[in-house]
Specification:
The protein is of the alpha/beta class and about 260 residues long. The chain folds into two domains: about 200 residues, 2-enoyl-CoA Hydratase, Chain A, domain 1 (Alpha-Beta Complex), CATH 3.90.226; about 45 residues. It is built from ten helices and ten strands. A six-stranded mixed β-sheet has the order 1-2-3-5-7-10, with helices on both faces. The protein has a four-stranded mixed β-sheet with strand order 4-6-8-9. Helix 1 links the parallel strand 2 and strand 3. The longest helix is centred in the middle third of the chain and has 20 residues. The radius of gyration is 19 Å and the shape is globular. The two termini are about 25 Å apart. The model has no long low-confidence stretch (mean pLDDT about 95). The chain binds octanoyl-coenzyme A. The site of octanoyl-coenzyme A has 23 residues, from helix 2 and strand 6.
Length: about 260
Protein backbone atom coordinates (compact mmCIF):
# COMPACT_ATOMS: atom_id res chain seq x y z
CA UNK A 1 0.00 0.00 0.00
CA UNK A 2 1.38 3.44 -0.88
CA UNK A 3 0.16 6.70 0.55
CA UNK A 4 0.86 10.38 -0.04
CA UNK A 5 0.82 11.55 3.58
CA UNK A 6 1.52 8.54 5.76
CA UNK A 7 4.10 5.80 6.00
CA UNK A 8 3.47 2.26 7.15
CA UNK A 9 6.19 -0.09 8.37
CA UNK A 10 5.43 -3.55 9.74
CA UNK A 11 8.15 -5.25 11.83
CA UNK A 12 7.49 -8.47 13.70
CA UNK A 13 3.83 -8.05 14.66
CA UNK A 14 4.22 -4.29 15.26
CA UNK A 15 2.93 -1.75 12.73
CA UNK A 16 4.33 1.77 12.83
CA UNK A 17 2.12 4.38 11.18
CA UNK A 18 3.84 7.74 10.65
CA UNK A 19 1.89 10.82 9.64
CA UNK A 20 4.34 12.42 7.27
CA UNK A 21 3.63 16.04 6.34
CA UNK A 22 6.43 17.65 8.37
CA UNK A 23 6.28 20.91 6.37
CA UNK A 24 2.77 21.44 7.76
CA UNK A 25 3.74 19.95 11.15
CA UNK A 26 1.72 16.86 10.11
CA UNK A 27 -1.59 18.76 10.13
CA UNK A 28 -4.57 16.55 9.31
CA UNK A 29 -5.97 17.52 5.94
CA UNK A 30 -8.87 15.60 4.40
CA UNK A 31 -6.60 13.30 2.43
CA UNK A 32 -4.52 12.38 5.49
CA UNK A 33 -7.68 11.52 7.44
CA UNK A 34 -8.78 9.30 4.54
CA UNK A 35 -5.40 7.58 4.29
CA UNK A 36 -5.28 6.98 8.05
CA UNK A 37 -8.79 5.57 7.95
CA UNK A 38 -7.78 3.19 5.14
CA UNK A 39 -4.61 2.05 6.89
CA UNK A 40 -6.36 1.37 10.20
CA UNK A 41 -9.08 -0.64 8.43
CA UNK A 42 -6.36 -2.70 6.74
CA UNK A 43 -4.40 -3.19 9.99
CA UNK A 44 -7.57 -4.27 11.77
CA UNK A 45 -7.82 -7.37 9.60
CA UNK A 46 -4.07 -7.95 9.16
CA UNK A 47 -3.38 -11.10 11.18
CA UNK A 48 0.37 -10.43 11.19
CA UNK A 49 -0.11 -7.26 13.25
CA UNK A 50 -0.76 -7.34 17.01
CA UNK A 51 0.00 -3.74 18.08
CA UNK A 52 0.11 -0.40 16.24
CA UNK A 53 2.27 2.63 17.04
CA UNK A 54 1.10 6.00 15.68
CA UNK A 55 3.63 8.83 15.45
CA UNK A 56 4.52 11.99 13.50
CA UNK A 57 7.19 12.54 10.84
CA UNK A 58 10.10 14.88 11.61
CA UNK A 59 11.28 15.82 15.07
CA UNK A 60 9.00 18.75 15.79
CA UNK A 61 5.44 17.57 15.69
CA UNK A 62 3.13 14.65 16.28
CA UNK A 63 0.18 16.46 14.67
CA UNK A 64 -0.38 20.25 14.95
CA UNK A 65 -4.14 19.91 14.46
CA UNK A 66 -6.64 19.78 11.67
CA UNK A 67 -5.38 21.57 8.58
CA UNK A 68 -6.53 25.15 9.20
CA UNK A 69 -5.87 26.02 5.54
CA UNK A 70 -8.89 23.88 4.56
CA UNK A 71 -11.24 25.71 6.95
CA UNK A 72 -11.68 29.05 5.23
CA UNK A 73 -14.47 28.15 2.80
CA UNK A 74 -16.49 25.90 5.10
CA UNK A 75 -20.11 26.55 5.96
CA UNK A 76 -22.03 24.99 8.86
CA UNK A 77 -23.03 21.89 6.91
CA UNK A 78 -19.58 21.22 5.51
CA UNK A 79 -17.86 21.71 8.88
CA UNK A 80 -20.27 19.40 10.70
CA UNK A 81 -19.87 16.81 7.95
CA UNK A 82 -16.07 16.94 8.15
CA UNK A 83 -16.16 16.49 11.93
CA UNK A 84 -18.61 13.59 11.59
CA UNK A 85 -16.67 11.83 8.83
CA UNK A 86 -13.42 12.24 10.79
CA UNK A 87 -14.91 10.94 14.02
CA UNK A 88 -16.71 8.00 12.42
CA UNK A 89 -14.09 6.93 9.91
CA UNK A 90 -10.98 7.43 12.01
CA UNK A 91 -11.12 8.55 15.65
CA UNK A 92 -13.85 6.10 16.73
CA UNK A 93 -12.31 3.37 14.58
CA UNK A 94 -9.00 3.70 16.44
CA UNK A 95 -10.66 3.77 19.87
CA UNK A 96 -12.66 0.63 19.07
CA UNK A 97 -9.98 -1.22 17.09
CA UNK A 98 -9.45 -4.90 17.85
CA UNK A 99 -5.76 -4.31 18.69
CA UNK A 100 -4.00 -1.69 20.82
CA UNK A 101 -2.84 1.59 19.35
CA UNK A 102 -0.01 3.43 21.13
CA UNK A 103 0.43 7.14 20.35
CA UNK A 104 4.11 8.11 20.37
CA UNK A 105 3.77 11.89 20.73
CA UNK A 106 7.03 13.29 19.40
CA UNK A 107 6.33 17.03 19.47
CA UNK A 108 3.25 19.26 19.05
CA UNK A 109 -0.05 17.47 19.71
CA UNK A 110 -2.52 20.27 19.21
CA UNK A 111 -6.24 20.41 18.44
CA UNK A 112 -7.11 17.46 16.20
CA UNK A 113 -3.60 16.11 16.90
CA UNK A 114 -4.21 15.80 20.62
CA UNK A 115 -7.68 14.46 19.83
CA UNK A 116 -6.06 11.79 17.65
CA UNK A 117 -3.64 10.85 20.45
CA UNK A 118 -6.57 10.68 22.89
CA UNK A 119 -8.42 8.24 20.63
CA UNK A 120 -5.43 5.88 20.98
CA UNK A 121 -5.38 3.36 23.83
CA UNK A 122 -2.03 4.41 25.33
CA UNK A 123 0.02 7.62 25.06
CA UNK A 124 3.81 8.00 25.45
CA UNK A 125 5.41 11.41 24.86
CA UNK A 126 8.86 12.83 24.22
CA UNK A 127 10.28 15.57 26.48
CA UNK A 128 9.79 18.24 23.78
CA UNK A 129 6.09 17.44 23.30
CA UNK A 130 3.59 20.24 23.75
CA UNK A 131 -0.06 19.34 24.11
CA UNK A 132 -3.13 21.52 23.88
CA UNK A 133 -6.53 22.26 22.42
CA UNK A 134 -6.18 25.74 20.85
CA UNK A 135 -9.52 25.67 18.99
CA UNK A 136 -11.11 28.57 20.92
CA UNK A 137 -8.30 30.84 19.69
CA UNK A 138 -9.78 30.19 16.22
CA UNK A 139 -13.35 30.75 17.36
CA UNK A 140 -13.97 26.98 17.33
CA UNK A 141 -14.22 24.08 19.74
CA UNK A 142 -12.53 20.67 19.50
CA UNK A 143 -14.44 18.77 16.81
CA UNK A 144 -12.75 15.37 16.77
CA UNK A 145 -13.97 14.16 20.16
CA UNK A 146 -11.79 16.36 22.39
CA UNK A 147 -14.61 17.69 24.58
CA UNK A 148 -15.60 14.10 25.33
CA UNK A 149 -12.28 12.26 25.68
CA UNK A 150 -10.24 14.89 27.56
CA UNK A 151 -12.57 15.06 30.62
CA UNK A 152 -12.49 11.26 30.83
CA UNK A 153 -8.70 11.26 30.89
CA UNK A 154 -7.99 14.22 33.19
CA UNK A 155 -11.34 15.16 34.82
CA UNK A 156 -13.72 17.98 33.90
CA UNK A 157 -11.91 20.79 35.75
CA UNK A 158 -8.54 20.30 34.09
CA UNK A 159 -10.19 19.63 30.72
CA UNK A 160 -12.13 22.89 31.00
CA UNK A 161 -8.94 24.76 31.88
CA UNK A 162 -7.11 23.35 28.86
CA UNK A 163 -10.03 23.98 26.48
CA UNK A 164 -10.94 27.50 27.72
CA UNK A 165 -7.36 28.77 28.10
CA UNK A 166 -6.14 27.08 24.88
CA UNK A 167 -2.73 26.91 26.56
CA UNK A 168 -0.20 24.25 25.62
CA UNK A 169 1.11 22.08 28.43
CA UNK A 170 4.49 20.36 28.67
CA UNK A 171 4.99 16.61 28.45
CA UNK A 172 5.84 16.53 32.18
CA UNK A 173 2.61 18.32 33.08
CA UNK A 174 0.71 15.98 30.74
CA UNK A 175 2.15 13.04 32.67
CA UNK A 176 1.25 14.66 36.00
CA UNK A 177 -2.41 14.88 34.95
CA UNK A 178 -2.35 11.38 33.38
CA UNK A 179 -2.89 12.66 29.86
CA UNK A 180 0.21 10.66 28.88
CA UNK A 181 1.54 7.56 30.62
CA UNK A 182 5.30 8.12 30.29
CA UNK A 183 7.78 10.72 29.04
CA UNK A 184 11.08 9.85 27.35
CA UNK A 185 13.83 11.66 25.50
CA UNK A 186 13.11 12.09 21.80
CA UNK A 187 15.67 9.40 20.93
CA UNK A 188 14.11 6.93 23.34
CA UNK A 189 10.45 7.51 22.52
CA UNK A 190 10.02 5.01 19.69
CA UNK A 191 12.32 2.49 21.37
CA UNK A 192 10.18 2.56 24.51
CA UNK A 193 6.94 2.45 22.52
CA UNK A 194 8.26 -0.61 20.66
CA UNK A 195 9.30 -2.25 23.94
CA UNK A 196 5.78 -1.86 25.26
CA UNK A 197 4.33 -3.04 21.95
CA UNK A 198 6.52 -6.17 22.07
CA UNK A 199 5.36 -6.97 25.60
CA UNK A 200 1.72 -6.54 24.61
CA UNK A 201 2.23 -8.55 21.40
CA UNK A 202 3.19 -11.63 23.42
CA UNK A 203 -0.19 -11.70 25.15
CA UNK A 204 -3.46 -13.15 23.96
CA UNK A 205 -4.90 -11.15 21.03
CA UNK A 206 -8.35 -12.54 21.82
CA UNK A 207 -8.07 -11.43 25.45
CA UNK A 208 -6.77 -7.99 24.47
CA UNK A 209 -9.55 -7.43 21.94
CA UNK A 210 -12.20 -8.17 24.58
CA UNK A 211 -10.33 -6.02 27.13
CA UNK A 212 -10.41 -3.05 24.73
CA UNK A 213 -14.16 -3.46 24.29
CA UNK A 214 -14.77 -3.80 28.05
CA UNK A 215 -12.55 -0.85 29.02
CA UNK A 216 -14.27 1.30 26.38
CA UNK A 217 -17.57 0.61 28.15
CA UNK A 218 -16.12 1.42 31.59
CA UNK A 219 -17.96 4.69 32.00
CA UNK A 220 -21.32 3.36 30.82
CA UNK A 221 -23.98 1.32 32.58
CA UNK A 222 -23.19 -1.71 30.42
CA UNK A 223 -19.56 -1.93 31.54
CA UNK A 224 -19.84 -4.58 34.26
CA UNK A 225 -22.31 -6.67 32.24
CA UNK A 226 -20.06 -6.52 29.19
CA UNK A 227 -17.04 -7.61 31.24
CA UNK A 228 -18.90 -10.72 32.48
CA UNK A 229 -20.12 -11.52 28.96
CA UNK A 230 -16.66 -11.16 27.36
CA UNK A 231 -15.08 -13.14 30.22
CA UNK A 232 -17.48 -15.99 29.42
CA UNK A 233 -16.97 -15.73 25.65
CA UNK A 234 -13.20 -16.13 26.04
CA UNK A 235 -13.78 -19.60 27.52
CA UNK A 236 -14.94 -20.72 24.07
CA UNK A 237 -11.80 -19.34 22.37
CA UNK A 238 -8.45 -20.98 21.71
CA UNK A 239 -6.23 -18.39 23.44
CA UNK A 240 -7.75 -19.27 26.81
CA UNK A 241 -7.01 -22.98 26.23
CA UNK A 242 -3.41 -22.17 25.23
CA UNK A 243 -2.87 -19.67 28.08
CA UNK A 244 -4.22 -21.92 30.82
CA UNK A 245 -2.54 -25.08 29.44
CA UNK A 246 0.80 -23.25 29.18
CA UNK A 247 0.55 -22.19 32.83
CA UNK A 248 -0.29 -25.72 33.96
CA UNK A 249 2.52 -27.19 31.82
CA UNK A 250 4.99 -24.59 33.17
CA UNK A 251 5.84 -23.14 29.72
CA UNK A 252 5.31 -19.82 27.94
CA UNK A 253 2.07 -19.57 25.92
CA UNK A 254 2.23 -19.24 22.15
CA UNK A 255 -0.78 -17.30 20.89
CA UNK A 256 -1.64 -17.63 17.21
N1 LIG B 1 -2.92 23.57 9.84
C1 LIG B 1 -2.27 23.93 8.72
N2 LIG B 1 -0.98 24.28 8.69
C2 LIG B 1 -0.31 24.28 9.84
C3 LIG B 1 -0.91 23.91 11.06
C4 LIG B 1 -2.28 23.52 11.02
N3 LIG B 1 -2.95 23.12 12.13
N4 LIG B 1 0.00 24.01 12.05
C5 LIG B 1 1.15 24.43 11.46
N5 LIG B 1 0.96 24.59 10.13
C6 LIG B 1 1.95 25.03 9.13
C7 LIG B 1 2.21 26.52 9.23
O1 LIG B 1 1.20 27.25 8.55
C8 LIG B 1 3.56 26.62 8.58
O2 LIG B 1 3.37 26.52 7.18
P1 LIG B 1 4.10 27.60 6.20
O3 LIG B 1 5.58 27.32 6.39
O4 LIG B 1 3.60 27.24 4.84
O5 LIG B 1 3.71 28.94 6.69
C9 LIG B 1 4.25 25.32 9.01
O6 LIG B 1 3.20 24.42 9.41
C10 LIG B 1 5.18 25.48 10.18
O7 LIG B 1 4.47 26.13 11.22
P2 LIG B 1 4.98 27.45 11.97
O8 LIG B 1 5.87 28.24 11.08
O9 LIG B 1 3.78 28.13 12.54
O10 LIG B 1 5.87 26.78 13.13
P3 LIG B 1 6.19 27.38 14.56
O11 LIG B 1 7.21 26.50 15.17
O12 LIG B 1 6.46 28.83 14.49
O13 LIG B 1 4.80 27.22 15.38
C11 LIG B 1 2.85 26.03 16.16
C12 LIG B 1 4.32 25.95 15.68
C13 LIG B 1 2.80 26.75 17.50
C14 LIG B 1 2.34 24.61 16.30
C15 LIG B 1 2.02 26.81 15.11
O14 LIG B 1 2.27 26.27 13.83
C16 LIG B 1 0.55 26.77 15.36
O15 LIG B 1 0.03 27.46 16.23
N6 LIG B 1 -0.19 25.93 14.56
C17 LIG B 1 -1.63 25.82 14.67
C18 LIG B 1 -2.05 25.00 15.85
C19 LIG B 1 -3.54 24.93 15.98
O16 LIG B 1 -4.22 25.91 16.17
N7 LIG B 1 -4.10 23.69 15.88
C20 LIG B 1 -5.52 23.46 16.00
C21 LIG B 1 -6.15 23.50 14.67
S1 LIG B 1 -7.91 23.44 14.76
C22 LIG B 1 -8.23 21.81 15.02
O17 LIG B 1 -7.36 20.99 15.13
C23 LIG B 1 -9.68 21.47 15.09
C24 LIG B 1 -9.88 19.96 15.22
C25 LIG B 1 -11.32 19.60 15.01
C26 LIG B 1 -11.66 19.58 13.54
C27 LIG B 1 -13.07 19.14 13.32
C28 LIG B 1 -13.41 18.95 11.86
C29 LIG B 1 -12.99 19.97 10.92
Amino acid sequence: MTFENIQLVIEEKIAIVTIDRPKSLNALNKNTIQELSTVFQELKSNKEVRVIILTGGGDKSFVAGADIKEFSDFNQEKAEELARVGQESLFNVIENLNKPVIAAINGFALGGGLELAMACHIRYASENAKLGLPEVTLGLIPGYGGTQRLPKLVGKGLANEMIFSAKMISAERAKEITLVNEVFSQEELLIKAKELANTVAKNSPQGIEKAIQAVNLSDTEQGFLAEMKYFGELFEMEDKTEGVNAFLEKRKPVFK
